[in-house]
Design goal:
By secondary structure, the protein is α+β, with helices and mostly antiparallel strands. The protein has two domains: about 130 residues, Creatine Amidinohydrolase, Chain A, domain 1; about 220 residues, Alpha-Beta Complex (Creatine Amidinohydrolase). About 35% of the residues lie in helices and about 25% in strands. The chain contains ten helices and 18 strands. The chain has a six-stranded mixed β-sheet with strand order 4-3-2-1-5-6. Strand 8 and strand 9 form a beta hairpin. Helix 7 crosses helix 8 and helix 9 runs antiparallel to helix 10. The longest helix has 24 residues. It is elongated. The two termini are about 45 Å apart.
Length: about 375
């Protein structure tokens, strides 16, 4: 997707001024992708984008320079292996007007040796991460981002339906995952993951899809995602092979009520932890609180997991345009797990679900 780098740099500088930040330093990452539309190859050679009060520049390894020039007009300060990056980094700092910066924001995803290069050059500077600058901006999606995420959500719906159509007793978790992957690929998407967790494996929220054979009475957690056009998808639905295990229907109802409670709580101005609390209260009041072992949701944009995080401790104030998952679950060791996940975008009057696939359990006839 085309990025309006000029507008995004201007927005970042507005936030920098508001937060008293003199310099933002990014490594090749989703942050860099969002800001300038690409990132050079990440390796052990320091490669950094420096954004100062009025100018920006790259610290660029010589091996990356020629290929990266095709993607950006931002000035390069190139360094070679026989010289090292220290002098080129000092020149880049001077170029962007930040060689005496007193408040530096570091990309929290960068390698520690990249960060050391920055901190050694500015030992007096106050240091923070991107929460109040770049991450703050990334959380609020524009219409183009929404359209890309919506398209991917509907694609994931179809991949899930392909999995439902193929699901039969006697097939393995891996075989079902392969069918879902094939559907993503058939629509030009990169398959990212397919967690297929049958029976007792469903009690592990991050189960590694394996060779377990799907059998009569299995409840099956199916959590899938793919990427197309630089944006991901993420959806979890449930299937049951034949007759559901004892108690399944009651627990599905409880988890669905938790989803509904979170949807009702999610409004602009509400704290993220209050959305988590709404979902958690439903499950706890039903007697299954100890079996809800993860957060209620995570943000999504060009990254599959990014702020805002819908956790019991998050003080993030939700705002219109934020995109995040709502995915409460109950996991009963030795029996089964049950999770229902949708991605939503927050509107003025509440969340809009990007998927169109109902959260009803898919039952495979005996």
């Amino acid at each position: 997707m085309t990025v309006d780098t000029t507008a995004r740099l201007a927005g970042l500088r507005d936030r920098m001024r508001a937060q008293g930040v003199d310099l933002v330093v990014l490594a090749p990452s989703a942050h860099m992708d969002w800001l300038v539309g690409f990132h050079p190859l990440l390796c052990e050679r320091p490669c950094l984008l420096l954004v100062g009060p009025e100018r920006e520049a790259f610290l660029m390894p010589a091996l990356n320079a020629e290929g990266s020039r095709e993607s950006t007009a931002i000035p390069f300060h190139v360094w070679a292996d026989d010289v090292g990056p220290v002098e080129a980094f000092a020149a880049a700092l001077a170029d962007v007007g930040s060689n005496s910066a007193s408040h530096v924001v570091l990309d929290e995803t960068m390698r520690i040796d990249f960060a050391a290069l920055v901190l050694d050059a500015l030992p007096w500077a106050r240091r923070s991460f991107t929460d109040d600058t770049l991450s703050y901006l990334r959380m609020r999606k524009d219409h183009r981002e929404y359209a890309a995420l919506k398209m991917n959500a509907l694609l994931a719906d179809r991949a899930m339906q392909a999995g439902f159509a193929a699901l039969r007793p006697g097939m393995t978790e891996k075989q079902l995952a392969a069918i879902i992957f094939d559907h993503f690929a058939s629509e030009g998407a990169r398959p990212d993951f397919a967690v297929v967790a049958a029976g007792s494996n469903g009690a592990f929220p991050h189960h590694h899809t394996g060779d377990r054979v799907l059998a009569e009475g299995d409840a099956v957690v199916i959590d899938i995602g793919g990427t197309k056009g630089g944006f991901p998808s993420d959806i979890t639905r449930m299937a049951v092979v034949g007759r559901p295990p004892e108690g399944y229907g009651q627990i599905h109802t409880i988890v669905e009520r938790a989803v509904q409670a979170a949807l009702k709580a999610a409004r602009p101005g509400v704290l993220a932890r209050d959305v988590d609390a709404a979902a958690r209260k439903v499950i706890t009041d039903a007697g299954y609180g100890e079996y809800f072992v993860h957060r209620t949701g995570h943000g999504m944009g060009i990254g599959g997991h990014e702020p805002p995080y819908i956790t019991a401790t998050s003080d993030t104030v939700l705002a219109e345009g934020m995109v995040f998952s709502i995915e409460p679950g109950i996991y009963i060791p030795g029996r089964f797990g049950l999770r229902l996940e949708d991605i939503v975008i927050l509107r003025e009057d509440g969340p809009e679900i990007l998927s169109s696939l109902p959260r009803d359990v898919h039952v495979v006839a005996e």
